[in-house]
# Entry
Amino acid sequence: AQTVTQSQPEMSVQEAETVTLSCTYDTSESDYYLFWYKQPPSRQMILVIRQEAYKQQNATENRFSVNFQKAAKSFSLKISDSQLGDAAMYFCAYKEAGANNLFFGTGTRLTVIP
Amino acid sequence: DTAVSQTPKYLVTQMGNDKSIKCEQNLGHDTMYWYKQDSKKFLKIMFSYNNKELIINETVPNRFSPKSPDKAHLNLHINSLELGDSAVYFCASSRVLTAGADTQYFGPGTRLTVL
# Structure
């Protein structure tokens, strides 16, 4: 079974600084997709960024970028120039190609310090 | 315009009652889902529906029954509520059933509290 592990229950970062959230996953598949979702206090689950496993280039969305290491099964999220609005729970998720089931990690609570 | 909406946002009820949570998406998506987020924030899929057909039932008790009157709606009905059913329930939708990186869009969640 696929498992997604987020080893950092909580992280904090100073405003305007950079923070990296870790995620590892376990799969025997070669074709899959990875996602980072953000859940602010409003509870809304918001897609931050996604990565196709067949792409070598790391995905980037404005201040958010990933470090995808397929061999190591690692998918970390880097947030640059952190803003107060980035404070939230961040969930890493995995989806096998051809399936529609998202497997989520246990989340990392990010605090942004003014 | 809200893409995926759920009602109600909060639901407090007594043990043993029957309740429903409604979900609607206006994205024209073919596939809809229900997820449960427990008190430790762990999210796990419960059901998936594609064009009104059940695709996944991840060992959810049969007290939970999804109902999809059309592909834009997926409601969750829960019979004989138990204390352990207290959680946040999320509805989500995606464009097609097996598309690769097809993003799932989530509703705002329904916090269910069983007393």
